[in-house]
Write a structure and sequence with these properties.
Layout: H1 7-49, H2 53-57, H3 59-64, H4 77-92, H5 96-106, H6 110-120, H7 128-135, H8 142-150, H9 158-163, E1 166-168, E2 174-176, H10 184-215, H11 218-229, H12 236-247, H13 252-259, H14 273-297, H15 302-309, H16 314-325, H17 327-342, H18 346-351, H19 359-369, H20 373-401
Antiparallel strand pairs: 1-2
Organism: Pararhodospirillum oryzae
Transmembrane segments: 20-42, 192-213, 220-246, 270-295, 330-351, 371-394
Subcellular location: Cell membrane
Length: 406
Amino acid sequence: MSQPLTLKARLHRAERRRKLGAFALVAPLLLFLLVTFLVPIADMMRRAVHDPELSQVWPRVCGAIDTWTDRAHLPGESVFAALAADIQESHKARTLATAARRLNYDAAGARSLVFGTARALPSRASSWTETLIAIDERWANPEVWAAVARASGPLTSFFLLQAVDLERSPTGGLRAAPPDESIYVDVLTRTFVVAFSVTGLCLLLGFPVAYLLANLPDRLAYPLMILVLLPFWTSLLVRTAAWVVLLQDKGLVNEFLMTLGLIDDPLRLIFNRVGVVIAMTHVLLPFLILPLYSVMKGIKPVYMRAARSLGAPPTVAFVRIYLPQTLPGIGAGTLLTFILALGYYITPALVGGASDQMLSYFIAFYTSDTVNWGMAAALGTVLLAATLILYSVYSRLVGHGQVKPA
């Protein structure tokens, strides 16, 4: 006959059941986040280093290129023979474009080199080295063979290095990319500058609004809150198009300023950085107001009254008493706004000029236009890594700035 459970065992069983029940309630949300958030991010990071395109259509040369150890000189005859066999077979299988496209990512003009060689390549040759070089002298360039080696897969660092304006030399060392190809560091810097500018402007405009909403009577605060939430009920594309109408040379803003006599000629407010910052600030402003409002609403007015009764001027009382209590809301609002601003695509694409496009534009370009998934994934990975680094720095600063209890 089994022994009756002790009180401690029954408590453990009840606690275990409670935890299992709580986990069952949040399990659908965890599964949703796993499928829609974590899995796509993991797949993006995989694509940034996974490079099977060339090895699938040129398996012989991708296997033989490993025997090329002296990268300062040309590979041996066996590598040239493997390349010739792969070109002949892929030309018949109509997969030559895949190899040409992948090599063209790394070596400019590789597409014409591959197709030109395929058209002139004989079925037999006594020396494939001499034959290929006679067809096109670029096969005598170690840089071209280094591009083949880097594309042989299945793993590669090419896309990640290119995303930070670096590349590998034929000998395997790192070097800066050519000046005409070194654009991504500048684009990443531009992305963070725009995101910081939008976040700062949102804080400057949103703090007074949140303060007003938190301190007004409810009968006045609720209608104003509806105005803050109103942009959520309007399409992002419609809001961006509205700013194009407002900010153009003959738009309402320029017409109003010229009517007042403040300007003689229209200001350039569209298709530049000014238009991007204004439009993005309008879109993201509610994301800063709402967290800040929720924190300000919980600050009791008795603290300010106590400071005033002890002789503190209004400005000193606000800065020393009220403002420190709003820091959690400022931190949450600015972080949310900044992260959202980093990934914006439609607003800069419609309102900004060619020199105002952010990193999301290039990610979309490589995804939809050139179908270069590796480069798109690498840019996304670099943006994610930079965001996580900034977030860790932010967390440390906020953590060190907190007042610890005595």
